[in-house]
Amino acid sequence: MQKYKNVAIIIPALNEVLTVAKIVKEARSYGCDVYVVDDNSEDETADEARSAGAEVLILPFRSGAWNAAQAGMLYAIKKGRYDFFITMDADGQHEPDHIPLLMDSCSSSNANVVIGSCVQRGSIARRITWSAFFFLTRLNIHDMTSGFKLYDKKAVEILLSKEAAMFDYQDLGPLLLLRRKRIKCIEVPISMCSRENGCSRIFNSWISVSIYLIKTCVWVFADWISKSGYSSGKWTDYDSI
Predict the structure, then answer these.
(1) What pLDDT tens digit does each residue of the chain (241 aa) get?
(2) What is the pTM of this model?
(3) Can you say whether residue 60 is alpha, beta or left, with left for phi > 0 and alpha for psi between -120 and 50 degrees?
(4) Is the sign of the CA dihedral 111, 113, 114, 115 positive or negative?
């Protein structure tokens, strides 16, 4: 089995005690260092992840999946020993066995970001939403909400800039920012498992969906008026916030 010593796995987790240990163990079998960012869980998620071999960061208050992922990326990049950073969900939807596929796709395409894409998993409402944003943004990404992504160091440095601090979700806003910075993103088709417990943070109620749509429309509008050459600063600036 291929080992990836230069890869950090970032797993935001909220109340995922039933699945997080299995994900951590499988990811570690590829030689990766695993960082679980506990988003202020109410169960034993942190203990289970730590027992499975992950280094666990515990946020002092609930911040959302994207901010938890950013915290993990910031912590990992400061280690100074990783060239690639992979984000995964802790709910069992993403299979660590796809890590080699993401790595090989990155190497063969020279992409900065590789997205594990599974459009089949989306409900009709979600596919309609994706189609609408695809039309508005012309962003050539079909699975916009996938949390299974590989980033190289250049992409992560942009996602840790002050400009990325305003986002609440890991999908459209960060992807538009990466496009403005001329970061190459590709998709690779993968299979995803059904959630074993819990539900989506975005699509769990009409109120959550409405908030998501409003915020995402604001980001789309901001992208229309933004200048692609505008400097986003350095990731070290974000560390000082």
Answers:
(1) 889 999 999 999 999 999 999 999 999 999 999 999 999 999 999 999 999 999 999 999 988 888 999 999 999 999 999 999 999 999 988 999 999 999 999 999 999 999 999 877 767 777 777 777 778 788 888 888 889 999 999 999 999 988 887 787 778 889 988 988 899 999 999 988 776 666 666 666 677 777 777 777 777 777 777 765 555 566 676 665 5
(2) 0.85
(3) alpha
(4) negative
